[in-house]
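Reopening: structure tokens for the zinc ion complex, inputs below.
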Amino acid sequence: MFFNFFLFSLIGFNALSNVAVTFFHDNLKLIGIDNLAFFHIESFGRWSQLLILFLVRDFVQYLIHRLLHRVPMLWQFHKVHHSVKEMGFAAHLRYHWMETIVYRTLEYLPLALIGFGIEDFLLVHLFTIAIGHFNHSNISVPLGIFKYIFNNPQMHIWHHSKSIPAQYGVNFGITLSVWDYLFKSDYIPYNGRDIELGFEEDELFPKDFISQEIYPLKF
Ligand SMILES: [Zn+2]
Ligand SMILES: [Zn+2]
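Re-run output (same inputs, fresh job):
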């Protein structure tokens, strides 16, 4: 939590992203693109803006999460998150810092095209962090019909299952589960509270913080 949320996200990445965003816009100006926005999002009401931002971002995140499982090099980084052997809200905090770089970079591009700024981004980000903790918590909260819209602990635990039916994984949704149902990547065969979590040969995966940070860089 200290490293990913405090040191890296708040201090490091905010400074970095402001520099990157300015650089990105300056370069587009150089090739003659002055205003990236395809339509004027500011003509929408505040809540509609945030809702659109949330929906687009969550869909892009679903695709990025699939990439993390699909691309061998990215999977090495994502293994840190999948090395949790037990669910609990803190499992959401265990991931390699490179994931922040991959997610924020790939998310920002389509959102800048729609015309969103970095401030709106932070608001939605804080909301999704809270939902992320919920999805990783070791509790059962049946959502009824809403399970087809929102991700939940009963669904996400199968994403962490050591044995999965599909080669590259299932249940990739971040905050919403609807993308998994739409693209047929959903999988909840039964209540999975006692299934084994992890991945093939996770017993060989390093156990301490420093070694886990270094592990993917060796590939
Ligand atoms: Zn994953
Ligand atoms: Zn997870």
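The pocket of zinc ion (ligand 2) is lined by residues 81, 136, 156, 159-160 (CB under 6 Å). The chain has a mean pLDDT of 87. Marking as resolved unless the reporter disagrees.
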